[in-house]
Write a structure and sequence with these properties.
Length: 279
């Protein structure tokens, strides 16, 4: 914890010294959120059909996120040279919705909620940007799921941890490329530590009000033997790019379940959804 305080103080001091303009609660993001990352701090919702370990699941799976990334102080020399400290908060919630044949009625059960809070240091230099992040994440199975499955015993939970990571991004005319690594802060006996992420996002250029977009994100963590968790989407983004547009998309995912204590189970799903960052 002392190291975190020293690092934060160093970043603040170096930013204040090197850059002469400070702005509180700035608009926009120096490092655009990775919306295809299932755990990213954003507001989103999806309705998908899912299979787990090759077995089709009844009904639909509905992941919803309520979250945001918001800078609270930004230092800048000009539009191409800036840095900021930002808050990163999200609750990722998943529901199972299906028809109960025994009672002949529609059911909606809370499956799981993952909570995450973190601190970001973002740095921008022209078309290049970096995100340095530290966060805490905890995962909690829903009461509906526990009752439905008659789970009245302790389930080991490795999805309760802290992590530091760093991502680099390059924004071209139409394509954004990114990649980075992370390290868990819990002992390796509790949770394996390494994390790798990479991906790209394409957006139709020179469109002011609406544009086609698509992308692929891949997350690999040591805890699940680096089995790739691949998210892909294609859709349309509505609104001006500097006014928090909303994205609608067809979605696909394959890999270890990105939520809950069942993260080792291989899932595949496809469906529709939306993405929004309200700040």
């Amino acid at each position: 914890m002392r190291l975190l305080y020293l690092l934060t103080a160093f970043l603040v001091a170096s930013s204040s010294y090197a850059q002469n303009k400070a702005e509180f609660l700035p608009k926009g993001h120096l490092f655009e959120p990775i919306v295809l990352d299932p755990l990213e701090a954003k507001t989103s919702g999806s309705i998908v059909r899912r299979s787990q370990e090759g077995v089709s699941q009844d009904g639909v799976f509905a992941p919803f996120s309520i979250g945001f990334q918001k800078g609270f102080v930004r230092w800048s020399r000009d539009e191409q040279h800036a840095s900021e400290l930002a808050l990163d908060v999200v609750a990722n919630t998943q529901f199972e919705m299906f028809h109960d044949s025994k009672e002949n009625r529609f059911r909606r059960y809370l499956f799981n909620v993952d909570y995450r809070v973190g601190l970001l240091y973002n740095l921008k230099r022209g078309a290049n940007s970096w995100r340095f992040r530290i966060y805490h994440l905890s995962s909690h199975l829903g009461d509906d799921y526990l009752i439905r499955q008659n789970l009245n015993y302790f389930i080991p939970n490795a999805v309760n941890y802290e992590q530091v990571d760093a991502l680099y991004s390059h924004q071209g005319r139409a394509v954004r490329l990114y990649g980075g690594v992370g390290l868990g802060l819990r002992p390796s006996s509790e949770r394996k530590r390494l994390y790798v992420q990479t991906g790209f996002v394409w957006k139709q250029p020179n469109r002011q009000k609406a544009r086609w977009w698509g992308g692929v994100d891949a997350r690999m963590i040591e805890e699940t033997e680096f089995h790739p968790g691949v998210s892909a989407a294609f859709g349309i983004e509505l609104g001006e790019t500097d006014r928090n547009p909303i994205s609608l998309a067809l979605q696909f995912f394959h890999g270890p379940l990105p939520y809950s204590v069942f993260e080792r189970k291989i899932n595949t799903w496809a469906g529709i959804g939306f993405y929004l960052n309200p700040f």
